[in-house]
Amino acid sequence: MMDTSYQQLWQDRKLYLTAMTHSGAKLFAAAFRSIGIDASEFPPSDEAGMELASKYISGDECFPLKVTVGDMLKKIQENDFSKQRLGVFMPTAEGPCRFGQYAPFFRKLVQSMNLSPDDVLVLSPTSRNGYEDLGNSSRELMRTGWRALVSSDILRKFLLRTRPYELNDSETEEVYESCLDGVAGVLEVPDQKPKEKLGALVEEMIRSRDRFRAIPVRKESRPLIGVVGEIFCRLNRFSNQNLVKKIEEYGGEVWLSDVGEWVWYTNSEQCRKLTMEGRTLTTAMLGAKLKNHLQKKDEHALIAPFHEDFHGCEEPQDIEVFLKLADPYLPQAGAYGEMVISIAKSVYLYQKGADGIIDISPFTCMNGTVTEAIYPRLSREHDHLPIKNFYFDGTQSDLDRDVGIFLELARSYQRRKKIQRAA
Q1: Could you tell me which of 358, 367, 363 has the C-alpha nearest to residue 340?
Q2: Band of the pLDDT at 58, cuts 50, 70, 90?
Q3: What is the CATH number of domain 4-135?
Q4: Which of 218, 276, 280, 222 is nearest to 248 (CA)?
Q5: In the chain, where the domains are located
Q6: Distance from C-alpha of 348 to C-alpha of 313, rounded to nearest angstrom
Q7: C-alpha to C-alpha distance for 177 and 152, rounded to whole angstroms
Q8: What element of type H or E holds 121?
Q9: What does the pLDDT look like over 201-213, one tens digit per residue?
Q10: For the chain, what is the mean pLDDT?
């Protein structure tokens, strides 16, 4: 648990997490609760939040910033600061993406509203102060938070594997939400040894697996559509106008790139940069290797019960081998960020028998712009695999027309492709 000073910092304060993914935010909030911080995800993003955000931004910012600012402003607007202070969880990142400026922008916005940091605390885990705001609980949170993200990815994958084939409308969603509640209940237990918590979490994940397996489904052949792209826009349903569900409505099954692959990529980048700096035999490299080992160990334990269910759609097991798939197009040493992962994942999905690739990005996003220039060549060199970029900026577009056309291309490719997906 937190020491006295940090207990005072979080006393009468509610921490909110932006729902890049509904499942990830819900389970990561449970991880925060396990160290004594009252946390939950922001309410779903909506047009009201977008309207509020437009009053404080210029319009040149990337779309995910507008969505997250809207989430925060809605909560600030309805909050009674005489009774409860707020916290906003907003990580940062290095590299070419503008995401690294979100947390400083949030702090500046709070100040412009004549609110103090005590009223609204912006918690930024990879910023200069690291996890100082969490005191002695930072290591525990990192371990539990990683398990939360892995569990979230697994349950979302099971949702997308099952929902297109369900016999009873909405049954898969209901099971999914119930499973999230069960996993959150395990994660939020305080003062539990890591080994005990992992054991309890694996048991809960097995119960979730069995509930998914019990859902009645029809047997049919659907085009498998891989979805890659900018991490927030592809995973946040509001940002992409629920494009995944739209693909399902037009007869497809979606393989959605998860959060875990970004974590493995950043781990790989950390080790690569340490090596380039001549710091191979250092405590920093030892710490990076140890973190990687523990994360891999936890992931293996959590995914083990699902090997049969995810046969043929396994996620990459070795990030270094996976990233080499992008070398002919965007080598890791010469480019940085989601563009590298999107290209590598597109090749990987082709090898797994996917029938089409959709890249989701915010309008003007550099990652999407770069990959769009590369996809024509990648498609030609992989049996003319259908690939399409979808850009989003909060305005309505004719998704029905575009998705319908793309699914027809995917069905045509499905009939002539060389690599068949596993049964």
Answers
A1: 367
A2: confident
A3: 3.40.50
A4: 222
A5: 4-135, 222-258+315-423
A6: 10
A7: 11
A8: strand 120-123
A9: 999 999 999 999 9
A10: 90
